[in-house]
Design goal:
By secondary structure, this protein is α/β, with parallel strands linked by helices. The protein is built from seven helices and eleven strands. A four-stranded parallel beta sheet has the order 2-1-3-4, covered by helices on one side. Strands 5-6-7-8 form a four-stranded antiparallel beta sheet. The protein is elongated, with a radius of gyration of 23 Å.
C-alpha cells in the first residue's frame, strides 16, 4: 500500500513516482483471498485514505505454479503487460502456495528462483517473496538453501510476547538496518463490525499493555519506575546497562551485594518484558503506557 499510495512505510522511504505519476504493484495472491481485501481496506482507513485509487494494485485470482517449467510465469507476464505499465513491486504470497515440486530440491527451488528473476528482468520490478521459516531455525527460510543464497535481501519476522520483530538477516550490498518492532492493531471497517488488522510501530514507547491487569511485585515496580523516569523526556529508550546501574544504585549496591542485586534486576526486568510492560531492541529498553495510551 505504501508503494502504490506514494507514502513512507513506517518512516522509511519507498519507491516514489514523479509528481502525478501512478505507481502500481501486483500481488500473486496464493492464499487468504477474502482476508487480503479486508487488509487493504483497513490499511487505507488507517492511512486516512477513503479507498485505494483504481488501477494501482492488482491481485491474481488464484495461485500460480511459479516453481514450474515457466508456463505459469509466462501467463503472469502477459497479464501484467496487459496492465500497460510495469509494476514497481511484484509480491508473491506465499512461496508455498505458488510453488510446484519439492521445496527441499535444489533443482525445483532453482526453477522458482529463475522464474522470479525473469519477472525482475522483464519489468524492472522488485520481487518480494513471502515464505515460511523452518522448524529448526526460526530465522532461516524453509527448504533448499539455494533460495536463501539467491536473495539480495532477507527479513525475518518473529513474534515475541505479542510484538512482531522484523530483523534483517541478509543484506547483499549494504549494511543491514536496525531491527523494527510492530504490534497488530484492529481496525473496524463498517457499521456491521467487520474488522481487520494493520501494523503499527512498536520500536519505541507505544501503547502496548494495560498493566492494571497485572499486580507488580515491589522489585518489578521499582525497576519499571526507574526506566520510566529515565525515558520520560525521550523516545530513544535507555541502554540496558544504564538502566541496570541506575536500579542497582537505588538499591544501595556495594561490591558485596552486587551479584545478588544483579540477579534481582534480571528477574524483574525479564518478567516485565514477558507481560509486555517493557520492550527491548538491541541493547536498549523501552517502556509502554500504564493504561494502554490514555
Amino acid at each position: 500500500l505504501s508503494v502504490v499510495l506514494n507514502q513512507p512505510w513506517h518512516g522509511r522511504a519507498v519507491i516514489q513516482g514523479k509528481e502525478g505519476e501512478e505507481v502500481i504493484a501486483v500481488i500473486v495472491n496464493g492464499e487468504g483471498h477474502s482476508g487480503i481485501k479486508r487488509r487493504i481496506d483497513a490499511g487505507c482507513k488507517h492511512r486516512g485514505v477513503d479507498a485505494l485509487p483504481e488501477g494501482r494494485l492488482y491481485l491474481t485470482e488464484t495461485a500460480l505454479q511459479l516453481g514450474g517449467d515457466g508456463e505459469a510465469v509466462a501467463v503472469l507476464i502477459e497479464e501484467i503487460r496487459a496492465i500497460g505499465k510495469p509494476p514497481a513491486l511484484i509480491a508473491v504470497d506465499t512461496l508455498a502456495a505458488n510453488f510446484i515440486g519439492d521445496e527441499n530440491s535444489v533443482a525445483d527451488m532453482q526453477q522458482f528462483i529463475n522464474n522470479c528473476s525473469l519477472l525482475c528482468s522483464t519489468f524492472g520490478s522488485a520481487v518480494l517473496v513471502i515464505h515460511h521459516t523452518g522448524l529448526a531455525d526460526p530465522k532461516r527460510p524453509r527448504g533448499s538453501t539455494a533460495f536463501l543464497g539467491a536473495l539480495d535481501v532477507v527479513y525475518a519476522l518473529t513474534l515475541k510476547k505479542g510484538v512482531l520483530i522484523m530483523e534483517c538477516i541478509k543484506m547483499k550490498d549494504a549494511p543491514p538496518p536496525d531491527p523494527m518492532a510492530f504490534r497488530l492493531e484492529q481496525v473496524v471497517l463498517d457499521d456491521e463490525g467487520t474488522t481487520s488488522i494493520v501494523l503499527v510501530d512498536a520500536t519505541g514507547p507505544q501503547p502496548f499493555t494495560d498493566l492494571s491487569q497485572h499486580k507488580l511485585t515491589k522489585h518489578q515496580d521499582e525497576v519499571l519506575r526507574i526506566l520510566r523516569e529515565k525515558t520520560s523526556d525521550s523516545d530513544a529508550g535507555l541502554t540496558i546497562a544504564i538502566w541496570r546501574e541506575s536500579v542497582l544504585a537505588s538499591w544501595g549496591v556495594t561490591d558485596k551485594n552486587r551479584s545478588t542485586l544483579n540477579t534481582r534486576f534480571t528477574r524483574a526486568s525479564k518478567s516485565l518484558h514477558e507481560i509486555g510492560a517493557v520492550q527491548t531492541n538491541g541493547n536498549r529498553a523501552y517502556t509502554f503506557s500504564m493504561t494502554g495510551g490514555e
